[in-house]
Amino acid sequence: MPIVPILMPQLGESIAEATVIRLGVAVGDSVKTDQEIIEVETNKAVMGVTTLCDGLVAEIRALEGISYSVGSLLGLLEVTEEEVARTGVDTLESLEGKKNSQTESSSVETENLHFAIDGDSYEEDPSIIPTVKGLPVPTGVMGAHYISPRMRARMDDMGLREADISAVAGTGAGGRVTVEDLERFLDYLEAWPSVAASPMRLAVADAMRRSWTRPLATVGLPVLLDRALEHRRAQSPKPGLTLYLLRAFALALKEQPMTAGYLIGEKVVHPRSFDIGVAVQVEDGVVVPTVRKVDQKSLSDLVSEYDDLVDRARRRRLTEDDTRGGIATVTNFGTFGLTTGTPIPLPNETLILGIGAGVKKPVWSDQVEAFVPATEAELLLTFDHRVVDGGGAGMLLKRVATLLQQPENL
Predict the structure, then answer these.
(1) DSSP state of 145
(2) CATH number, domain 3-124, options 2.60.40.1180, 1.10.150.20, 3.40.605.10, 2.40.50.100
(3) pLDDT tens digits, residue range 61-78?
(4) Per-domain residue ranges of the chain
(5) What is the DSSP string of 163-203?
C-alpha cells in the first residue's frame, strides 16, 4: 500500500521550526483527513499538525520536547490507492521520483525541505539546530572586549551573541576574550543549575536583543484616571483600562502619524492603518496580538474583539495573522502592581506606551481650592530616537493623557 509522509508544515511566514509538545496518535491508529494528530509549539502559539488524507499510522518519528524545522519528517501514514487518487497527496514513491528528476539548479529548494529520500525511507537532516540560543551568565566579572575572527567563528558554531558572553573575563591582549576564556567559562557554568529555555523565552530574548540595537528613550508623565474609571463603571460590558489606553493612543497617533513612522534606510515609512498591539503575559513570556483599525472603532465596538484576542493569547491560540502588522504596542504593567517601568518596543515598531498601577494621591483642585483624593498613574512612552525626538514624543504622550480625561469621546 502507498506510504504518505507526515511533515512539519509551514505554520506561518516567519516560523522556521516548532517543538512537539504532544503526540495525539500511536502506531496502528486510524486517522481521518484534517485530523489533528500532533500538537506543536512555535515561538508565538500552540498549533496542530493535521493529516492530509485518511489512513493508518505506520510510524511516528517525532519525539515530544524536540524541535523540528519546516519539512521535517514526523511520521508515516499507510493509505489506499483510492485515497491517494481522491486527495492527490504525495507518496514516498512520487516524492522520490520528483527528487530524481530535479535539476542541479533547483537543489537548494530540495535542501530547504530538511529531509532526504534514500530508497524507501526518509532521513532527517542532522544539521538542523535551534535558530535562537541563549547563555545564562553570573554577574560580578569583567565584560568582553574585542572579539577576534577565531572567537567569532567559535561563537557562530555555538549560536552565541555578543550579549551572551558579556560576563566573560578576557585574558588576551588588551582584555580580549579568547576561545580558551569562553571554554573555561562554559565549564564553570556546568555546575550551575539550569533548565532548557522554552521557544517563547528564546523568541522574547531574540526580539529584545534586536530591539536594543536602536537608540531607545523613554518619557513619562502622571495621568489622572478617575474620569476613565467612572466612565468604565457605567458601561456594559465594561472595557478594561488597557482598552481606554489603546483607543486614546490610536487617536493620538492618527493626529500625529509621523511619530509612528519606521526608519528604513533613508526613508521613514508611515503607517497605512492604525493597528496596535497589546502585550499579554503568558507562561514564560509575552505575546502581542494586534487590534485592527483602532482609530475607526469605538470602545464598545472593540470590547468583544479585544477580549477574544486576549483570551486566545493567554491560551496560546493566536494565528500568524493575529500578531502581524502592528505599528505600536500598549502594555499595562500596572496589573502587576508596578507603578513605573521602561517598556521596550518590538524590533519592527518605533513606539510602546505603558501605564503603571493607579495610586490614590492628594491632587490640587481649582474648583474647590483644596487638595482632593484622586487616582493617578504613570504614563510612559518608549520610542526610537532615530525617528522621534523628545519633543515629539512628549507632545504625543500629553495628547494621550488629554484623551484619557475625555473617555466619553473614546
Answers:
(1) -
(2) 2.40.50.100
(3) 999 888 888 888 899 999
(4) 3-124, 149-196, 214-409
(5) GGGTTPPP-SGGGPPPHHHHHHHHHHHTTS---PPPHHHHH
Residues paired with residue 361 on neighbouring β-strands, in sequence order = 374
| C-alpha angle 200-203-206 in degrees, rounded to nearest 5 | 150
Give Cβ neighbours of residue 367 (< 8 Å, ≥ 6 apart): none
Cβ atoms 40, 11 nearer than 8 A:
yes
Taking only the tens place, the pLDDT of each residue in 230-266 is: 999 998 888 999 999 999 999 999 999 889 888 888 8
What residue ranges of the chain have pLDDT lower than 50?
103-144
Among residues 70, 31, 69, 25, which one has the least CA distance to residue 51? 31
Residue with cell 467612572: 230
Taking the complete model, does pTM exceed 0.70, yes or no?
A: no
Cβ atoms within 10 Å of 33's Cβ, excluding its own: 14
- 51: how many CB neighbours lie within 10 A of its CB? 23
Beta strand 328-332 pairing with 276-278 = parallel
- The CATH class of the 214-409 domain is alpha beta
Beta strands at 328-332 and 351-355: parallel, antiparallel or unpaired: parallel
